[in-house]
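Cross-check.
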Amino acid sequence: MSRKLVLSLGVVAMLVTLTLFGTPVSQADVPQMVPVASGLDNPRGLAFGPEGALYVTEAGRGTTDPNPDPATCFDGPEGPVCYGATGAVTRILNGQQERIASGLPSLANPAEHGDFAIGPQDIAFRGRGNAQVVVGLGANPAVRDADSRLAGLGQLVQLPASGAWRNVADMAAYEADANPDGGEEDSNPYGVLNMAGARLVVDAGANALLRVRANGNISTLAVFPDRLVDAPPFLGLPPGTQIPMQSVPTSVVMGPDGAYYVGELTGFPFPLDGARIYRVVPGQAPQIYAEGFTNVIDIAFGQDGSLYVLEFATNSLLSGDPTGALIRINPDGTRDIVASAGLVFPAGVAVGPDGGLYVSNYGAFAGAGQVVRIEP
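Predicted model, tokenized:
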């Protein structure tokens, strides 16, 4: 999904019991997961529109051309990726699903048959006709210079009711110009929050939370720091060696207190219980709100103030186990595992007006993706 969202491919799924902060987390009865959409290409972020429909971004499947133009391909961290206009947004309403926007940029390794694509990653609404979608890149912004068709990657996109989307802010260009974390230039816009007069975007490659004003101007709101963590044994380093790990923020929401909350996937080596939720107040350094999670891919607040935390790979991306988990932080601070068995690389969560929890499942697979409803 990017050099910092490296995926360990695996097909074994098993139910696990997590321990957070050293305190056992209760495993609720396995809930019923009811599919509400299927046949999706790498489904990611979810949001309810003002008319009550549920929208899901599809990162696409890259190119469908068996002989892609070499100018639209470049070396990604796990092999070559090639461009195709296969990204989309699907609407789910009254039991029916319909792609209401298509032709959005997408990248994938042709050898993976469209799995693990990068493309439309998240969607957020503020009124009808003002949907905002982030399109990822997962690379140095300079790779886009090779072909004009790549220019649509690393963008914030406005999606009107007509579905005729247009780019409104070049997030990757901002990384090239500002490089907020001062590290290697890498942009992968991944989550978006749509507010009056501005949009907030988390760039997983830039390790930053960015503000996009109505005129398209971009500024840095927060940077999420690297941390030193124990090196995994397979690296063959001396015992006790620590290596730097990047934050890789993947989601942003506004909390009941008006602050912003950001979840992080973490970069290599993806340690168990190494991911955090940050609380961000403009003008202040990010503060740790909660920790002890693994590979957080999305977060959402419930109507009662509970925070739902979605783990992409609850046993760590290095485990090869694609099992995810949906965890609830209750208002009193206790935690419950809402669901785990049956979640396979889940990639997005939304709380419905009906109180149900909606999750994009099989979020790293082309054609096999689905959206499921889970009773909280």
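The longest helix spans residues 171-178. The helical segments are 171-178. Passed to J.P. for a second look.
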